[in-house]
Structure to design on (458 residues):
């Protein structure tokens, strides 16, 4: 039995930018969902994982499969439907799963033979059996997986073409921010994989640099942090020889022992969601966690950096409380915090979030010709109607934020402070210049986007 597992491309995202900077290679992440599905698949299936981010193959030239499985974030949905249509025309059954299939079940049902909602661990083996028996059902609901039943991902199946490996050590997040789908999809209950499984899986990864995809690496409660420390101890003891980057919340900075152990285990960078420079903004986004205890963000960032761990901060523009000037304000605050890099995104209503419910009910989805428009739901296009900004205005805020933070004097200041702190001046220089290099591509993308929106009947 032959199985194709496919990750659809969105040409508006990643790969187009590879020409601009070779460093963008480090932004192409492996589709871990498909590697986990492969880990759940019995040996009688011959599996090929196709990641269209590395280039879409000529499917007609490939042997006919018995089943096609497609994953998709919302921003990949229309390409997913094109692929599905191709294989269904050949009479091959197509199943789709992942976040978009779960949040937009009815839409997805129209395009594929079967849909898996939720996490797949509890239903995938049965689905494969049903395909063999010729009785594939229209829908399977996996709910939340038992964490000890998550198999080791098949890292051997995507062994070349990537700069980094990928792994997941926890699922779920209790914080339930209004714009984020993680709590709705993976649950508020924070689940941590058994430590021996994580260490074994790390050992099976070929790449020296690994991206830990967890949404919240160490969790928020003392028992979660204690388990994270145990994991880091086990990783250091196993002498994995890996360097890794993860996503964390700001409380990562609050425990010196945690930071020491993380660094020993190979942690070299963290992405942290700061989201808004003001407490009002954090309240609007439901991220009250960041305002607890009158935190000094600059001091927290410095504490992490002292362990030679880079800090990349993520912010959102277009909140209802944001007013003109917010772009410059974010750039200033990010420099005050001493962040090594920033990633600024437009407030985007994603299906299944509280923000989606709110904006939809207020008729604020500016791009709503679905499924066609899903490709703009990358958080890098202003797809909504913003309270205090026109389309031009919100784009201008983004542009001024990025050009300010990545201005040459600011980059040189960051490099100098890295030199002074004996951290990684060269890495900061190259990664900052790479972000700066992408800004021109982004301005071109905004111009095309404005043209598209301007030419639409209102
Ligand atoms: C790693 C990651 C990335 C990587 C990409 C990795 C990749 N797959 O190519 C990078 C950094 C590139 C990325 C980019 C983006 N991401 Co992202 N990302 C994640 C993250 C943190 C982890 C994904 C992961 O690997 N999980 C581990 C696997 C094992 O879990 P899983 O994907 O859920 O798969 C399970 C089930 O869903 C199911 N399943 C999945 N696919 C399939 C397919 C079939 C056939 C079946 C049966 C089952 C099935 O089975 C799996 C096992 O249970 C998630 C958050 C999250 N917790 O999922 C956000 C997340 C998926 N990203 C999100 C977003 C918004 C984006 C961006 C649009 C914007 C951005 N800048 O972040 C871009 C766009 C990318 C694009 N190509 O269009 C949102 C998606 C929401 C939505 N409705 O689409 C999420 C949920 C985060 C959030 N804050 O809400 N992302
Ligand atoms: S944004 Fe981060 S902290 Fe908030 S719910 Fe999503 S994963 Fe959790």
């Amino acid at each position: 039995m032959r199985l194709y597992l496919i990750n659809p491309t969105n040409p508006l995202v990643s790969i187009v930018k590879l020409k601009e900077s070779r460093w963008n290679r480090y932004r192409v992440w492996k589709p871990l969902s498909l590697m986990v599905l492969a880990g759940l698949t019995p040996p009688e299936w011959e599996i090929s994982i196709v990641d269209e981010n590395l280039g879409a193959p000529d499917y007609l030239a490939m042997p006919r499969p018995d089943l096609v499985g497609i994953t998709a974030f919302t921003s990949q949905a229309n390409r997913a439907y094109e692929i599905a249509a191709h294989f269904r025309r050949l009479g091959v059954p197509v199943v789709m799963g992942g976040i978009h299939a779960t949040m937009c079940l009815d839409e997805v049902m129209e395009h594929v033979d079967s849909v898996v909602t939720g996490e797949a661990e509890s239903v995938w083996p049965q689905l494969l059996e049903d395909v063999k028996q010729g009785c594939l059902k229209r829908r399977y609901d996996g709910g939340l997986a038992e964490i000890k039943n998550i198999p080791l991902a098949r890292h051997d199946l995507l062994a070349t073409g990537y700069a980094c490996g990928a792994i997941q050590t926890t699922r779920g997040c209790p914080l339930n921010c209004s714009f984020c789908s993680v709590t709705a999809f993976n649950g508020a209950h924070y689940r941590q994989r058994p430590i021996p499984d994580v260490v074994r899986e790390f050992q099976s990864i070929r790449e020296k640099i690994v991206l830990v995809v967890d949404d919240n690496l160490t969790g928020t409660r003392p028992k979660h942090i204690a388990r994270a420390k145990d994991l880091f101890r086990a990783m250091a003891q196993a002498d994995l020889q890996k360097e890794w980057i993860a996503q964390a919340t700001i409380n990562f900075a609050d425990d010196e022992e945690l930071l020491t152990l993380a660094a020993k285990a190979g942690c070299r960078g963290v992405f942290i969601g700061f989201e808004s420079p003001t407490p009002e903004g954090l309240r609007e986004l439901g991220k009250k966690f960041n305002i607890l205890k009158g935190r000094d963000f600059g001091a927290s960032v410095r504490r992490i950096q002292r362990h030679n761990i880079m800090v990349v901060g993520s912010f959102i523009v277009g909140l209802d409380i944001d007013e003109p000037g917010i772009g410059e304000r974010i750039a200033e605050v990010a420099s005050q915090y001493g962040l090594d890099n920033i990633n600024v995104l437009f407030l985007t209503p994603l299906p299944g979030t509280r923000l989606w419910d709110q904006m939809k009910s207020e008729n604020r989805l500016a791009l709503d010709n679905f499924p066609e428009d899903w490709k703009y739901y990358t958080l890098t296009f202003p797809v909504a109607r913003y309270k205090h900004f026109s389309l031009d205005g919100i784009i201008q805020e983004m542009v001024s934020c990025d050009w300010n933070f990545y201005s040459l004097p600011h980059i040189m200041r960051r490099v100098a402070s890295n030199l002074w702190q004996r951290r990684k001046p060269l890495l900061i220089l190259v990664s900052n210049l790479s972000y700066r290099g992408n800004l021109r591509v982004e301005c071109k993308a905004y111009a095309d986007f404005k043209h598209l929106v301007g030419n639409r009947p209102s």
Remarks:
- Residues 7, 10, 13, 29, 31-33, 36-37, 69-71, 73-76, 95-100, 103, 116, 119-121, 124, 145, 168, 180-182, 186, 213, 215, 350-351, 378-379 surround cobalamin (ligand 1) (CB under 6 Å).
- The chain is about 40% helix and 15% strand.
